[in-house]
Design goal:
The protein has 5 helices and no strands. It has 175 residues and is an all-alpha fold.
Length: 175
């Protein structure tokens, strides 16, 4: 695709986000299944449902633009998912692995926040006022998901990971 106009870049970035969200539809159930914390599992499952809504919203935007959503692979999301899947293959203390899942999920959220913030700005510049509202709603949900992951990390997972790690370490010192 040739990118001579902001509109072309806008559509290109929407396609990138569309592919990213579709990749997440496949990755989030695996992350949820691997989570030992019921709160983390629930948060990932709820975000899966939100992600389906994000795809629907993007499809609405493509229809309004009279464009097809397909045609671009989001390499950034692909890399983040591959990196995050490494933690799912590890053995270790449950809370420590959950902390790793949160790291992977927050990297994904930050990537999406950057993408949605950019396309919302493009939509605003292009006078796509309805699209601005639609994209802002998704951006808000991505930010809320990131904040929830931070709360889960701070209040449940990271303290548990620290305790498990300390117990494992002290046990190995006394053996």
């Amino acid at each position: 695709m040739k990118l001579d106009t902001l509109r072309e870049l806008y559509i290109n970035e929407l396609r990138d986000l569309y592919n990213a969200e579709n990749q997440l539809i496949k990755a989030l159930p695996k992350m949820a299944k691997a989570a030992s914390s019921k709160e983390l599992r629930k948060a990932l499952e709820e975000h899966l449902e939100q992600t389906k809504g994000h795809i629907d919203r993007l499809e609405q935007l493509f229809a309004r633009l009279d464009e097809k959503p397909k045609g671009k692979t989001c390499r950034g999301m692909k890399g983040l998912i591959e990196e995050g899947s490494e933690i799912l293959e590890e053995d270790g203390e449950e809370s420590v692995l959950d902390a790793g899942i949160i790291v992977a999920a927050q990297k994904v959220e930050h990537y999406e926040i950057a993408g949605y913030g950019s396309v919302r700005t493009f939509a605003n510049l292009l006078g796509e006022n309805e699209a601005v509202g639609i994209l802002q709603k998704t951006l808000d949900e991505e930010s809320e998901a990131d904040e929830l992951l931070t709360v889960l990390a701070d209040e449940i997972v990271n303290p548990g990971a620290l305790m498990e790690g300390e117990l494992a370490e002290s046990g190995s010192r006394h053996s």
